[in-house]
Write a structure and sequence with these properties.
334 residues; alpha+beta; eight-stranded mixed sheet; six-stranded mixed sheet; 8 helices; globular
Length: 334
């Protein structure tokens, strides 16, 4: 899930005004989006934890390499996603998004406060306890359920590995966040989201009021994003550059998983780890105008998990109540 709620001290009203006026901001290609090598993880865990913490504090975004998921598995997940979105709309409408449960399919339904217009995309969200009849049948899409649940589990494992490093840095035990994201509980609410950003027709290429995804921060603890080579558009704006609207592109790299800190982990860390703004811009004339596919895994603590930071900066709150507050504040019409 995503939100447009800024971290402490950010002026969303100004961001909203500038974005609706068509302000693209400036582009900074010199900012370093650090690449963290996860190989030999157990032996190097303290070193990796330091690298993750530094990258997260600096930009809030980083990329994982040698992460352990076979590239063939990632390509297979993208193939399944593309096949799902190619189904007739009449079929996809059989599996509508259950908004409160974050499960199912939607199209052009997410309106960002930062833009006031629907994101130009469709998505299909998998949240394990709530799928019920929301999976396509094996006749409609053979092997889809098995493939995507396996990929969701693989993504969860990588997310828990990264979060164990943040637990170490925050003074929690190594399994702290794994318990908070327990897949075996009915309160589990982490989500695998398949995304299809629509191709841009020539007649709307110059309309700046349309965005593939308007500026926002994420609700969760940690987001893992898989991008397809050649299908760019993701940009990040760390908080210290928010006034200047200085955005840094994160080009897709099939060998890397792009990660960012979400609002939930920001709160859990006493605001030490920033949840920063990012967006997916429409391509500019001369750039690739075709469809863009990506897959995101949102590690969101179970609904009954208690978010209580070491320094007690914020009052305790359950993860379920926290997400409800974010949704109510940011997507009144969603």
């Amino acid at each position: 899930m995503t939100a447009a709620t800024p971290p402490v001290g950010y002026d969303l009203t100004e961001l909203q005004r500038e974005t609706r006026m068509g302000a693209m901001g400036s582009i900074n290609t010199t900012r370093d989006i650090r690449r963290i090598d996860l190989s030999d993880f157990e032996a190097r865990k303290a070193e990796i934890a330091d690298q993750l913490w530094d990258a997260a504090v600096d930009v809030g975004f980083f990329q994982l390499v040698h992460h352990g998921i076979d590239l063939g598995e990632i390509r297979g997940a993208f193939d399944m996603a593309e096949r799902f979105f190619a189904l007739p709309e009449s079929v996809k409408r059989q599996y509508p998004l259950k908004k409160a449960l974050n499960a199912g399919w939607e199209s052009r339904a997410q309106v960002r406060p930062s833009t006031g217009t629907p994101d130009q995309k469709e998505s299909y969200q998998i949240t394990r306890p709530h799928m019920g009849e929301l999976f396509p049948t094996d006749e409609e899409l053979p092997g889809f359920v098995e493939k995507m649940l396996r990929f969701e589990r693989q993504s969860w494992e990588i997310a828990m590995r990264v979060l164990s490093c943040f637990a170490y840095k925050l003074g929690f035990d190594d399994e702290f966040f794994t318990r908070a994201h327990d897949q075996g509980q009915p309160s589990y609410q982490s989500t695998l989201r398949l995304l299809h950003y629509y191709a841009i027709p020539a007649e709307v290429q110059d309309k700046l009021d349309l965005w593939r995804a308007g500026a926002h921060t994420d609700f969760d603890c940690l987001t893992l994003l898989y991008q397809r080579q050649g299908q760019g558009g993701l940009e990040v704006c760390p908080g210290k550059e928010m006034d200047a609207q200085e955005w840094t592109p994160i080009p897709p790299d099939g060998d890397a998983i792009t990660c960012n800190i979400g609002d939930m982990l920001m709160r859990w860390s006493d605001d030490q780890l920033p949840s920063n703004f990012h967006r997916v811009k429409n391509p500019l004339p001369g750039e690739y105008m075709g469809p863009r596919y990506s897959i995101a895994f949102f590690a969101q603590a179970n609904r009954d998990a208690l978010i209580e930071s070491p320094g007690k900066t914020h009052p305790p709150i359950t993860a379920g109540d926290f997400l409800n507050q974010r949704v109510a504040a940011n997507f009144k019409a969603y």
